[in-house]
Amino acid sequence: MDERRVVLQVQGVSKDFEIKSKEVFGKKQTLHALTDVNLHIYQGETLGIIGESGCGKSTLGRCMVRLHKPTRGRILCDGEDIFALKGEKQQKLCRDIQMIFQDPYSSLDPRRTAAYSVAEPLRVHGILKNQDAIDERVLELMQEVGLDLQHLSRYPHEFSGGQRQRINIARAIALNPKVIVCDEPVSALDVSIQAQVINLFRRMQREHGLTYVFISHDLGIIKYISDRIAIMYLGRVVELCSAEAIYRSPLHPYTKALLSAIPPESPFDKKERIILAGDIPSPIGEQIGCPLAGRCPSCMERCKKEAPGLKDYKKGHQVACFLYD
Amino acid sequence: MSEVLLKVENLKTYFYQASGVSKAVDGVSFSLNQGETMGIVGESGSGKSVTSSSIMRLLPAKTGRIVDGTILFGDTDIRSLSQREILSFRGNDFAMIFQNPMTSLDPVFKVGRQMTEMILAHRKISKREAWEIAVDALAQVGIPEPEKRMNSYPHELSGGMCQRVIIAMAVCSNPKLIIADEPTTALDVTVQAQVLELLRELQRKNGTSILLITHNLGVVWEMCDTVMVMYAGKTVEYATCKELYANPLHPYTWGLLDSMPKLSSDSKKELAAIPGVPPDLRLTGTCCNFYNRCPYCTDLCREAIPPLTELTPGHFVACHRQSETQTLERGGSLDG
Description:
The structure holds two protein chains of two kinds. Chain A has ten helices and twelve strands.
């Protein structure tokens, strides 16, 4: 796998947010959204990122498209730091990395037609100047995502959720990006529509050679669409492996608990439950030890004092847990 | 078989709006036994939530109206009750758990006050007694330090904790029926597992019946004895869970089952999506609502409403193509 070209490289990225204290003149507190995340994203693959709410998966996605600047660490696209680029090169980078957001309703301007929304990136980046050429390209994009001429002049409220997400996809691929960061793109949709949109994502990838970073909390969907999966917990990547391995041989206690918490696939399934006690600890304040230490069934003394790093367990399967040291 | 607790027959709830009459629920029939759990599954807009608000008589007074059908709770006809009578039913005999735990609690009052208020509204007891009942209920749903939590505001609790408080409020009057409208949709999977386990445990202890509304089939497999599939306001299939999984009959149920990626299979085949979108509820009610998305559609489907028929004992389906005389083969995918 190593000979494949790395498109996006996340190097030791941490992101802290300063938040106000509860007291009026209290000291500011730090929320550790991401802690030392390292990832490689290869050309043409889909990297799934899964975790519960508040685990930092969306923050990571937003860092990749420069919506957040990491507190520490670098993100490299084709070997260049995406936060150091200026001018022309920065514009080019914006075209290379696009994002699709969770809520198809709020990510479209309600006062602009579908055609306008899809044409906007083309206009902003000055790719096509001639109005006729823009119209032609927009229609082509719309047809590619399964919409038609009649949809061009409609406004967002006239579309269903699935159709709106199709418009967002058309807009994201308008600039021929290399990487698309998809932040829970199907979780607002109904099951039958979800399947349609996922099929569309896979077709787009085949036809355009896209690389996806696919963020979701639904393990079934992540496993279906991804080549590799990163499992996040409290701002850290705790396990990184191929999509098949996560179901066959999960290593990290959190991954095991997550898998056992998923409702069964048939009424004949009886699952052994590993219930993690309590809630996810707060990411505010200083973080000592393994993030799972307080809830982990196999917690050791060492886990309370130091945090395990992501280490190779075997080829293509990394885990951050002292059990596998 | 145990006793039937809730029986709904041919329920029709319409919404009268400026733009027309929306047939949100248009023919729903099922029955729920004492101590059992029934699941209602369907997509958004299929009428799951309206069904439950019709049973609770919580429809918006100006626009929503139950136009036809019967709702029998034990021997009582819910539709014939006056406003005053229904008030004593709610909270005592049936309780409801809503989807969003954060918005079901009033953010400006402490948990304890909200719980005691609810108890005092239904029972003639002192405040102190109500307080004790509330603390007991919180302890029952597994909230650590219940006395302390009584003095917390909802924003101080996590989503899972809030949902536990709501469940505690629902169970503290020992209702016979709990209607849970997407109780875990807003929660993470690990928390969802905790909450479902809690509901099951309470059911075992108190013998409560649960009507569970969800769009997640996995939750249904885990929790329910019987399941009803709804589409565009109608019951399309109704059977026990195991029967529905092993032997689904309606083409919509097939589509629903096929369109979800399975965790245990490594197949990267195209997902079998159902083409098209659900119909406008103002225009339904003249034929089979699924005809425009169904690959097995015939002329009859475009002309007449399929009746809900019992094909095998306990297995109801509403489809023209599935009857005693003719059956359809589940043809794998539903590509259009």
